[in-house]
């Protein structure tokens, strides 16, 4: 039923698409994007529906030839408590991006680029274990941790990381 291409099954692709969309998706749209026949999409979705009908916080809801993966309504109040705040504010994400891009970077350099807001950002980012402090010649220097690379799935190669972060910063500033 679920053919594998590059080690990723159709089931996994459908789950990813349905979770990411947050809306009902028509079988034809799934078929066009995933390059799979509608019949195979429907069969795999029926299989997924059985999986999610059991003890799962998620449910696969069928509309007229469209499907949506969502949190069960009775669990929505719990999920809402965890989903109210975004993981990183725009401002915090920008500070983190600068540390990753320029790091190791001194507090002084960071303050010149972002202002005094960095002091609270540094505390928060250290608590989240996304940045680390190192003392070099009595100067506090900050860089990102291995957890940063794992969490954001960005390259550890400095040049590749800089390209990725540059593109992200451009988007944050609305330049793209």
Fold and architecture overview:
- By secondary structure, this protein is α+β, with helices and mostly antiparallel strands.
- The chain has two domains: 77 residues, Winged helix-like DNA-binding domain superfamily/Winged helix DNA-binding domain (Arc Repressor Mutant, subunit A); 83 residues, Arc Repressor Mutant, subunit A (Orthogonal Bundle), CATH 1.10.10.10.
- The chain contains nine helices and eight strands.
- Strand 1 and strand 2 form a beta hairpin.
- The mean pLDDT is 87.
Helix residue percentage: 55-70%
Cα-atom radius of gyration = 22 Å
Lateral strand order in the biggest sheet: 3-5-4
Q: Structural class from helices and strands?
A: alpha+beta
Specify the overall morphology. elongated
Largest sheet: 3 strands, antiparallel
CATH superfamily of the largest domain: Winged helix-like DNA-binding domain superfamily/Winged helix DNA-binding domain
Number of helices: 9
Mean pLDDT: 87
For the record, the count of structural domains works out to 2
Present the secondary structure layout:
Layout: E1 4-5, E2 8-9, H1 10-21, E3 25-26, H2 27-34, H3 38-53, E4 58-62, E5 66-71, H4 76-83, H5 90-102, E6 105-106, H6 107-114, H7 118-127, E7 131-136, E8 139-144, H8 146-152, H9 158-172
Antiparallel strand pairs: 1-2, 3-5, 4-5, 6-8, 7-8
Helix pairs in contact: 1-3, 5-9
């Amino acid at each position: 039923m679920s053919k594998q291409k590059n080690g990723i099954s159709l089931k996994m692709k459908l789950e990813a698409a349905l979770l990411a969309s947050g809306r009902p998706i028509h079988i034809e749209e799934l078929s066009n994007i995933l390059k799979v026949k509608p019949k195979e999409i429907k069969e795999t979705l029926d299989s997924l529906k059985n999986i999610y009908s059991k003890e799962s916080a998620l449910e696969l809801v069928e509309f007229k030839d469209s499907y949506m993966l969502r949190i069960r309504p009775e669990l929505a109040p719990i999920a809402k408590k965890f989903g109210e705040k975004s993981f990183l504010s725009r401002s915090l994400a920008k500070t983190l991006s600068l540390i990753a891009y320029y790091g190791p970077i001194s507090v002084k350099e960071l303050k010149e680029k972002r202002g005094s807001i960095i002091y609270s950002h540094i505390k928060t980012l250290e608590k989240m274990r996304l940045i680390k402090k190192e003392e070099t010649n009595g100067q506090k220097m900050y860089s990102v941790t291995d957890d940063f690379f794992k969490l954001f799935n960005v390259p550890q190669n400095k040049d590749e990381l800089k390209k990725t972060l540059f593109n992200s910063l451009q988007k944050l500033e609305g330049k793209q």
